[in-house]
Amino acid sequence: MSKQLNIGLFGFGVVGESLYNVLLQTPTLNASITKVVIRDPRKRRSAPAALFSTDASEILNDESINVVVELIDDADAAFQIITTALLNGKAVVSANKKCIAEHLDELLLLQQQTGGALLYEAAACASIPVIRNLEEYYDNDLLQGIVGVVNGSTNFILTRMVEDDLTFKDALLLARQLGFAESDPSLDVDGIDALNKLAILLLHGYGIVTEPGLLLHSGIRHITRSDISYAAEKGYRIKLVACAVKLKNGRIIALVLPQFVPRSSLLHNVNNEYNGVTIRSGLADEQFFYGKGAGGFPTASAVLSDLSALRYNYRYEYRKKFLQESSVLSQYGFLKVYVSFDSHITFPSDEFEWIEERHSGPGRNYITGVVSQKKLLQDDWWRQPGISLILSAEPFVEDIELRNVKRKSLQLAGVA
Amino acid sequence: MSKQLNIGLFGFGVVGESLYNVLLQTPTLNASITKVVIRDPRKRRSAPAALFSTDASEILNDESINVVVELIDDADAAFQIITTALLNGKAVVSANKKCIAEHLDELLLLQQQTGGALLYEAAACASIPVIRNLEEYYDNDLLQGIVGVVNGSTNFILTRMVEDDLTFKDALLLARQLGFAESDPSLDVDGIDALNKLAILLLHGYGIVTEPGLLLHSGIRHITRSDISYAAEKGYRIKLVACAVKLKNGRIIALVLPQFVPRSSLLHNVNNEYNGVTIRSGLADEQFFYGKGAGGFPTASAVLSDLSALRYNYRYEYRKKFLQESSVLSQYGFLKVYVSFDSHITFPSDEFEWIEERHSGPGRNYITGVVSQKKLLQDDWWRQPGISLILSAEPFVEDIELRNVKRKSLQLAGVA
Fold first, then answer.
1. Residue B181 — pLDDT band, cuts 50, 70, 90?
2. Predicted-complex ipTM score
3. In this prediction, what percent of chain B has a pLDDT beyond 70?
4. Confidence bin at B411 (pLDDT 50/70/90)
5. Are residues A211 and A296 in the same domain?
6. Are B139 and B282 found together in one domain?
7. Which residues of A belong to the active site?
8. CA A377 to CA A151: how far, in whole Å?
9. What is the CATH number of the domain that holds A148?
10. pLDDT tens digits, residue range A131-143?
11. Are residues B11 and B109 in the same domain?
């Protein structure tokens, strides 16, 4: 019933090697790796030498290979491999979120032109089957929102800051020592990795193609221990959250920001290197997926799931984009936030639509109130060292609510 | 790429009607309902009258219909429909866990003989895609265990007992009033529904076909408020848990019993009518799926996911059963349990392999210790009114551990 997969594999790191071993031990999958292209031929490999080559064309031009699995780090090289493979009539499985997110438009077009399948379940939350679920099971108009902790590295750091009472720097160091952060951790720590994943989820959830960098985002670099204490007092944990939520006006607000997550939220218990994604829809109500979002084995597990799908000629149809009316991104939303800043910095009151709370104390001050999405996108006062901006637990202020509160403030002030 | 589904639908309750509406509003799914067979022709329906019939053959003998969706309550009638549809060359989607679980063997055989597809994602945990995940993504030898809260009705009752300080009877009454329990709740309350789901998960997870009734099981009928208090003191919640866990000897211990669930467990926060399933595997580590496990919309959502899969000619291959060495059920395991009983009942000490703790107090006594799986299966002292048996948080005692502890007890007693 299902077809035989002859796989050409790029990259033989932890993911590639796990995949090789699982396929070897599981002949019932009807899939075998016939060639592996690597960069460094001198490295010792735990597989027969005849399997390896440093020449990409040995896979890309081999007609007996019908599936290319691309597991290399370099996003540009990955893009070359994916496009060539698709043009040569091969199905492709990739785990490279950066490459996918940055080339969504071109990769969509190429799939349409070639009729080939490109699957990348591993590119968002690794072992958690969130892409296929969004693609298949949630109709555009029924999908109310996707909210997730999608970066294991920052989540590990934030968890250690809480549980071991560490500063950001010390927690980052620990994450590096334990292999939960790259030697250049900026992709993770500045929220770019989460943003790439969000861009992929936006496409499969809402049919929106966007350049990741245009979305409102920040990372966790400026989160202080006083922020952590503030959160703990209120029963919150701070998480770097990626979300795409439908507002009452039907538009989608999409962003990556640190957020206060209350105990009642399922994301509260997503700690350390784990990922979790909550999907709300009209039909299935609330669903929550949890698992390891990075690492060799979880990534191999997701790649395996894509291979399994290819056996049935499955391909993403990008239904929300091509077959339904795509959703539109909100640009003019309002967000409830907490902003803390070193005491030598002037209160950034002017940046707020309205202020709910001001606090000054030894070393650190904070404000809570409402800011405009558009202004945050334009300005970068809130990204400066010494300032941290954290979304409140219920962050989305609908326009109507904003008008009411503004009127009320004016009334209180005796103006209206 | 994907094929057109012409659907004949049996049953037009909440699930059927939601499905009809979603398919109507989503032409991109390439699936439409062309005939609906119902029992009562006089009921008012929110769809054109021409769609309905009371004659099953109008679907089963119509060659233009290539998919039968079966959503009726009656398990025997459902079995007739499913078998006839498969024999007539149609693919079938069913949500009837009782029918599926009780006829696993016959339905497997029939699928092999006819080459037809029978999908039933809705039959275990409704909107949670657990069956397909087990079938596709976890290799037999990599799957360490499946532990889940899979019955919303009992979970609602237990949650209300804790949060509203209700007795079992009052909580059951509340569940009925709110539509979370049937007028005859025994299938839920006595653990049979969870058991049926476990039987299905055992097949897709481990390739084991078993008569559900042969597995160790009980429900929540005899759980008292003193059990709830005992749990609360230790930071536990009592959940009716279905589990299939691989022991060190490679065998699978499968059971449905109430269990103490600690705060550190992801199942701790699965409350009210929600379901949650934890899957542990060598590759993906721990994964957790959470969502509504019953109700019209969540069930419709799962049926929709099966229809979506049928568009790619997907079918369960039952890989763990047919293409790998199936696992074997453990019959001789040992379990750590807590047994509480009314004070007029004699301490059932003889039933224990060893006892860790005894407590007697006003109204209610309890013992904690280790019992043998085999003895529990044979005897029914622990199912009697006035007695409740609850699995401990870490319930599985490996043989070797048992021998050590036994030796130690004997040494302490000065025997060895």
1. confident
2. 0.81
3. 94
4. low
5. yes
6. yes
7. 197
8. 22
9. 3.30.360.10
10. 988 887 766 567 8
11. yes
Per the CB < 8 A criterion, the answer to whether A284 and B127 are in contact is yes
Start-to-end Cα distance in chain A: 73
By residue range, what is the domain housing residue A347? 334-412
C-alpha distance from residue B282 to each of A18, A162, A341, B141 (Å): 11, 29, 44, 8
Helices within A69-191 (DSSP H only)? 75-87, 97-102, 104-114, 130-137, 152-163, 168-177, 186-189
Name the residue with higher pLDDT: A195 or B311: A195
Contacts B323 to A, Cβ<8 Å: 28
Note the pLDDT of residue B141. Answer: 61
- Of the candidates B74, B91, B119, which is a domain's last residue? B119
Residues of chain B contacting A122 with CB distance shorter than 8 Å: none
Q: Rounded to two decimals, what is the model's pTM?
A: 0.87
Q: Collapsing DSSP states into helix, strand and coil, what is residue B24?
A: helix
Instruction: Judge: B289–A289 Cβ closer than 8 Å, yes or no.
Output: yes
Split at pLDDT 50, 70, 90, the class of A405 is low
Q: Which helix (H) or strand (E) holds B310?
A: helix B296-310
- CA neighbor of B82 nearest in space, from B103, B64, B63: B103
CA distance A139 to A131: 13
Q: For residue A389, what are the β-bridge partners? A: A339
How far is Cα of residue A293 from the mean position of the Cα atoms in its chain?
Answer: 10
Residue A85: C-alpha distances to residues A13, A92, A143, B172, B400 (Å): 21, 7, 33, 59, 53
What are the helix (H) ranges across A190-273?
A: 192-206, 225-233
Residues B377 and B315 in one domain: no
Residue A34 has pLDDT above 90, yes or no: yes
The last residue of a domain, from among B94, B119, B144: B119
Q: Which of B232 and B399 is assigned the larger pLDDT?
A: B232
The residue in chain A having the minimum alpha-carbon distance to the alpha carbon of residue B270 is: A266
Instruction: State pLDDT tens for residues B248-297.
Output: 888 999 999 999 999 989 999 999 999 999 999 877 788 899 998 877 88
Q: DSSP assignment, residue B275?
A: E
For chain A, how many residues are written?
416
Helices and strands: H and E segment counts in chain A: 15, 16
Do A287 and A357 belong to one domain? no
Condensed to tens digits (0 to 9), the pLDDT of residues A325-340 reads 778 999 889 999 999 9
Amino acid at B108: L
- pLDDT confidence of residue B326: 79
* Residue B40, C-beta contacts closer than 8 angstroms, at least 6 positions apart: none
Residue type for A304, please? L
Residues A348 and A223 occupy one common structural domain: no
- Whether A288 sits inside 8 A of B286 (CB atoms) is no
Total structural domains in chain B? 3
Residue A230 inside a domain? The answer is: yes
In a domain? residue A263: yes
Looking at the fold, whether A56 and A187 belong to one and the same domain comes out as no
| Cα torsion A115, A119, A123, A128: sign | positive
Radius of gyration of chain A from Cα atoms?
Answer: 23
Q: Is residue B124 one of the residues assigned to a domain?
A: no
Mutation choice for A interface testing from B118, B136, B283 by most A CBs within 10 A: B283
List the single range of A95-104, A169-178, B28-37 with lowest mean pLDDT. Answer: B28-37
- Asked if the structure places residue A327 within a domain, the reply is no
- Mutation for B interface: A17, A273, A289, most B CBs within 10 A: A289
Q: What's the token pair of residue A344?
A: 């030598």
A339 in the same domain as A308: no
Question: Is B91 in contact with B82 (CB distance < 8 Å)?
Answer: no
Q: Which residues of B touch A137 (CB under 8 A)?
A: 129, 301, 304-305, 308
Q: CB–CB of B343/B362 below 8 Å?
A: yes
Q: How far is A354 from chain B (nearest CA, A)?
A: 36
- Give CA–CA dist B183/B180, Å, rounded: 10
Geometric angle at alpha carbon A88, from A82 and A90, rounded to 5° = 65
How many C-beta atoms lie closer than 10 Å to residue B331's C-beta?
A: 13
